[in-house]
Amino acid sequence: MGRGRRAKPTTLKVLQGNPGNRALNEEEPDYGAGAPSKPDYFDDYASAEWDALTGILVPARVLTKGEIGVLVVACDAYSQLRQCQEFLKDKGSLSYDASSETSGASYKPYPEVAQRNMARRQYLSALAELGLTPSARTKVKRIPETDKSGVKRLLS
Length: 156
Description:
With 156 residues, the protein is mainly alpha-helical. It has helices spanning 10-15, 44-57, 68-91, 111-129, 134-137, 150-155; strands at 95-97, 107-109.
């Protein structure tokens, strides 16, 4: 488990004028703009969300092939969210009657309620990582159309 703030990308430090005056990582990897290949194990919901997200991020030039993990998490969380929503819609309620003769009247939430809430948090977190929330969008920079990569393209 890390401590402190999350590290700021080198390109962002350069664009902000390196306010901490610390040494810059000039060897930061460049994964190349564009969408990674869609995993073949996705269900229909995850596949549709992959297409939707890449359809937004690729033209905006903020996606690299290195973001496959974040995209997979976002699409998987979206799929779980939709499946839980369908289950709860079919039940028509968020809770069920768990009453018994010994304990009396009692209602408990379906486990899918907690799963849905966790999927929502994971989905929102992944969207923020990709710059798809209003507050996160202000921190995202487009990938320039030049051949240069990483910090070298910003310093030249």
